[in-house]
């Protein structure tokens, strides 16, 4: 089992940047595919980005492609989400998720793919 703790959220003006971090417990972090999801008030949780356990393969939702970058540091058991050119519609609680991946290139784009979830960190973008 793995525990996930997000950090780095906050209040930022439109056009600004934030970097979220997700720290994982345990010694097997490098075997997990990771993802970031977000949930805005009154909306369902939606996919944001995913990265394979090797870090070589990534994927993004259309709404964040070109603005957000997911990365990981397996030596630090941490996955990151660099968010640039933030918009008010990016306001949400951002959560990271993990799943033990069968292959080095596996990624997950849906909520059902992941087994473990963090509690989330609030991101608020003011206009």
Describe this structure in words.
The N and C termini lie far apart (about 40 Å). The model has no long low-confidence stretch (mean pLDDT about 95). The protein is mainly β and about 130 residues long. It contains no helices and 11 strands. The chain is globular and about 40 Å long. Strands 2, 4, 5, 6, 9, 10 and 11 form a 7-stranded mixed β-sheet that branches. Strands 1-3-8-7 form a 4-stranded antiparallel β-sheet, with no helix packed on it.
Strand and helix layout:
Blueprint: E1 4-7, E2 10-13, E3 18-24, E4 32-39, E5 46-51, E6 58-60, E7 68-73, E8 78-83, E9 92-100, E10 116-117, E11 121-126
Keywords, separated by commas or semicolons:
single chain, 127 residues, 48% strand
Characterize this entry briefly.
The radius of gyration is 13 Å and the shape is globular.
- Radius of gyration from CA coordinates: 13 Å
User: How many alpha or pi helices?
Assistant: 0
**Contiguous uncertain segments of 5+ residues:** none
User: The biggest beta sheet, please?
Assistant: 7 strands, mixed
Mean pLDDT: 96
Order of helix and strand elements from N to C terminus: EEEEEEEEEEE
Q: Number of DSSP strands?
A: 11
The percent range for helix content is under 10%
Query: In angstroms, what separates the terminal alpha carbons?
Result: 40 Å
Assign an overall shape.
globular
| β-sheet strand percentage | over 45%
Q: How would you describe the oligomerization state of the chains in this entry?
A: single chain
